Amino acid sequence: MTDTPTPSLTLTLTPTFDWFPATATPTREPTPVPSATPNLRPGIGEVIYQDDFSEDVLWSALTPNGGRVTITNNHITLTLNDTIGSVFGIRKSPQLTDYYAEVTTNPNYCQGEDEYGLIIRVYGEQLNHYRFSLSCDGRARVTRIVDGRALIIRDWESFMQLPTTYPNNFRLGVWVKGTEVRFFFNDTQLFALDNAVIVGGSLGVFARASEADAVSVNFSDLNVYQLTSTGE
Hints:
By secondary structure, the protein is an all-beta fold. It has one domain: Exo-inulinase, domain 1 (Jelly Rolls). It has strands at residues 44-51, 59-62, 68-72, 75-80, 85-91, 99-109, 115-123, 128-135, 139-146, 149-158, 170-177, 180-185, 188-193, 202-209, 215-227.
């Protein structure tokens, strides 16, 4: 079992919006998945930055439901205890447009419809963004948040590759170029979006408890690469 790092820092912001707004009867954006190619992550070039989670000043925390964000032992750990809600860690900089990013993810404890994952292209006072969510029962989805309103881009889908037992260790990745975004679990592409309306911003991670129970997720080894002009 992976030990949860001892919390050493809790940063708290006061939000003025709903990070998990209602998503009833959304209008879905067209999201055709590209046909199979030898390389679904073309044009990966030099490293933009590598974050080993040794400097907590690079991150901000949003804990509207009383959760905690701690950075210690080269991990960022998101936890909630006995409360329904969500917690977010957001990297302050740089603002990114075209890139490929991967992060190691290790849910220590979660179950059922609890969620965790990546948020990308985070920008503005309302923290608009795209959210790549994995549930603890083996499903994934993509949601867009703009001005506090949520739009489901790809609704929950089950994937055999996704873990349903924890602790577990794997990589989440996003390939982002212009209006196209591809979402990866390890080396498998789960979703693709070809008309993203949010075209730049920072990166972050999140966790959400669907019931009044504990959730704990570690993230480590965040690597971000530029895309070369030869990328598709």
